[in-house]
Amino acid sequence: MSIRYTQRLADEGIESSVGSVGDSYDNAMAETINGLYKTEVIRIQGPWRNIEAVEFATLEWVDWFNNRRLLEPIGWVPPAEYERVFYLGQNALAKAA
After folding, report:
1. Span 10-44, pLDDT tens digits
2. What percent of the chain is predicted at pLDDT more than 70?
3. What is the dihedral of CA 38, 40, 41, 44, to 10 degrees?
4. How far is CA 56 from CA 53, 62, 78, in A?
5. 68-92: average pLDDT
6. Which residues pair with 77 in a beta bridge?
7. How far is it, in rounded angstroms, from Cα 97 to Cα 61?
8. At what angle do helices 51-67 and 79-96 cross, to 10 degrees?
9. Quick one: CA torsion of 59, 62, 66, 69, rounded to 10 degrees?
10. pLDDT given for residue 1 in this prediction
11. Where are the domains of the chain?
12. Is the pTM of this model over 0.70?
């Protein structure tokens, strides 16, 4: 299976993000987010009338997840706000240097 996967990526000109054996942290993160999405949107809000309803619910969830969800580890602020403040600080440091 992994040979077919690697070949398919190569055929499409896509770089594989998988490193050495046992090194697929990005995949674990993606699977975690997929599971969260399926639980919070697909299973709880379904059954779905059509694909457009699923797509709209997905857009709403992604917007909430990035822009309004409050995270304790970063000071109870949304991820997008935390990232914006972080980069503002980085730019200020670069200008000061």
Report:
1. 888 877 665 555 555 567 778 889 999 999 999 99
2. 87
3. 100
4. 5, 10, 21
5. 94
6. 71
7. 40
8. 50
9. 110
10. 65
11. 25-96
12. no
DSSP state letters, the chain: -HHHHHHHHHHHT------STT--HHHHHHHHHHHHHIIIIIIHH-S-SSHHHHHHHHHHHHHHHHHT--BGGGTSB-HHHHHHHHHHHHHHHHHH-
Q: For residue 96, how many other CB atoms are within 10 A of its CB?
A: 6
Q: Which two tokens stand for residue 56?
A: 């709209």
CA 58 to chain centroid: 12
